[in-house]
Amino acid sequence: MKKGNGSFHVRKYLNPPERLKDRCIIHVEDIKSGIRFLELELSKGDFIDAIAGGNVNCTFLLRSEFIGFKRENKTKLIRTEKTDYNSLNTKEKRKKFLVPYEKNGWEGYGDDLINSSRAVLKKEKLFQRVSFFRYVKPKKKKRKVK
Questions:
Q1: Separation in Å, CA 59 to CA 10, 25, 38, 46, 107
Q2: Per-residue pLDDT tens for 9-61?
Q3: C-beta of residue 79 within 8 angstroms of C-beta of residue 41
Q4: pLDDT in tens, 99-127
């Protein structure tokens, strides 16, 4: 059993999609890694019953593989062409484009490749600012012996 510190919040939508109009989403996050590892979905009525002490059913998504890890982030300038906006029109194509840059566990946000606000013109060449992240095990602190 793992024990750690976390936080949770109940998602509120200003203009929810039709599917979520009567739904409540609860996110649980590991403070150390920043990963949202549990997402619960239930009706608003069931949520009210639950906080009043009731036992209710829900659907959930569990992502526990990185709990306790440390999230690292970086941004890289990646050379692109104007034509890449059209040729990278699916998530699969963007993922494939980033493969040469995803080393040592780094994973890039493919949508950055087609986000015009992340474009940079440098010496008349087009680049995209792409965010990368990875999860690493935290280094164990050595205890001093007295």
A1: 15, 10, 11, 12, 28
A2: 998 777 777 878 888 899 999 887 788 889 999 999 999 999 999 999 999 99
A3: no
A4: 999 999 999 999 999 998 999 998 889 99
H helix intervals, 65-146:
84-87, 91-98
Q: Is there a contact between 126 and 82 (Cβ–Cβ < 8 Å)?
A: yes
Alpha helices, H only, 19-118: 44-51, 84-87, 91-98
Residue type, position 31, single letter: I
Span 60-82, pLDDT tens digits = 999 888 888 888 899 999 998 87
Identify the burial level of 21 via C-beta atoms within 10 angstroms of its C-beta, where 0-12 means exposed, 13-18 middle and 19 or more buried.
exposed
With CA atoms as reference, report the closest residue to 33 among 9, 8, 5, 60.
5
**CA distance linking residue 114 with residue 111, whole number of Å:** 6
* Helix runs in the chain, H state only: 44-51, 84-87, 91-98
Hunting for tokens 């690493």 — which residue is that? 136
Residues 1 and 6: their CA atoms lie apart, in Å, by 15
Cα gap 8→10, rounded to integer Å: 7
Closest CA to 112 of 124, 122, 101, 123: 101
